[in-house]
Here is the input.
Amino acid sequence: MSHPAPAKHRNSATMPYRKFKVKGSIGKILHLPGGQRIITTSSSDSLRVWDLETGTQVEEWEVPVKLDSTVLSPDGKTLAIGSCDDGVVKLWSIDTGKITLWRTVRSSLRAPVP
Here is the structure.
């Protein structure tokens, strides 16, 4: 049994909250605690912090390698990024935008294929 496609933006639940213009394509979107900001990763090798109320970019951090993995700590204060290009995992402070720790990993950051 097929269902009809929903009408575009029929109600506030399907209407976009905010639209953002970014350079390149978006790799990941991470929602920061507090509900006011998000972080996007992009193909232009950068991390950007956005204010959801205004739709403006409030921070940009250049990343010199392709991002293969990105995860936010449970408290929302640290961002871990990993790259297969250099085999390094870096921890970034969300508050300062600076790298607080980096470690070279001996094996690939890619998940094994079953």
